[in-house]
Amino acid sequence: MMQDLANYRLPNDWSPGAPRWKQTLWLLVGQVLLASELPGTPWRRWLLISFGAQIGNGCRLKPRLRVKFPWRLVVGDHCWLGENVWIDNLAPVTLADRVCLSQGAFLCTGNHDYRSPGFDLTLGPIQIGAEAWICAKASLAPGTEVGEAAVIGLGAVASGRVAPGQIMAGNPAVPVGQRQARESAPAPSILIVVPTLDSHSLLPRLVASLRAQTFPHWRVLFIDGPSSAEHRACLQQLCASDQRFSWQEQDPATPGIFGAMNQGFAQANPSDWLLFWGSDDWAASPTALEQAAAASTACDLLVGQGRYASLDANGEPVPGRRTAFRWRHSYRLSLFLGSTPPHQATLIGPGSRQRLACYTPGFRLSADLDYFLELSRFPGLRVKLLPVELVQMAVAGISGVQHRRRLQEVRRAYRRAFGLLWWCPFLLRYLQRAGSAVRSRLRGLPARKEAEPCPDC
Fold this sequence. Notes:
By secondary structure, the protein is an alpha/beta fold. Helix content is 27%, strand content 25%.
């Protein structure tokens, strides 16, 4: 007789690894819940851990997942276990970090000796290295060791040892290629546009803070108003000594600070991230731009934080109040509730400029507010908050005294964005600013600067 199933016996040296009550509870309750259609990772993770599994952080566990013995399962951080994955772990199964088991993947740790009349059970643990991918309907035989970043292709049946990075396909699975990472996307570039008007005495701090940056892919464009010969000579000397700095004369047809900024919009390359600073602004730390560049993926508008600063008797900055965008569930709702991104700490990405290519003409003090409001009309705009202090801003600005015109422009911007409900964000904006001013006075911090010095305001 080749196969006497009537006399089959489990090996004497094998044990389920848990008491019978625990096995029964898992079979009747835990396994049923785990394999259900109910969505949700947190409760599935808790369930498996409660029965002895080790599950890392950031994992995704899909419905219809089946696990034989959770106490023999180890899953690393940020792993994905897809629908209908079956882990038949009579022997231990170990997944390292960032492993993906796609839909219907089968991990089998038990086999039978077909040459033995007793159909003897044979076992082998399965180990899967970091960043490996077991594709849909693929199967791993007992004792399989999958190397780091290896791929077991669609429906393949793998056994033995799979080398790191190897791509396997077929039944039995054979090597068909080597996994290689795509070339990383080019580093983002940051264009800092600085309107100037006889402000050369303020520039050394800005220049020094940028030259100290750990991020190399930045450049500065000065848009200069009708400045003096001394100021122009300083700009020319700076730009000649460092090619990362350049300057242009401001077009007289578009006067004012936002006219200069629109000229900067027009000079940006398609892949540039735009940042608008004044002559008296400077980078908050040597890593500020590097942190911003690292966070610029998968977004169109990157909103950082800034800090106002006064200067002591020796000309050294004294840090004051921090300014940040208050997020309330969504970008547009946050704007409606009176919060505004600080334009000196907000990077405008290519996706934003494809929607709005420049500031609206006619605004002389609040074009930045209008721009951020108009952007909120576009569905799919990706906004990311960056909890990093990018810029420090000197407390100054002659435009801050033009209260009547500013109020008119702010009201106009809110009416363009919210129609008859304009009064709600308008009031909330100034209530928040009044409260902030009171708190700053009580703490002895520098007051808020409304805008940069404004040529021809």
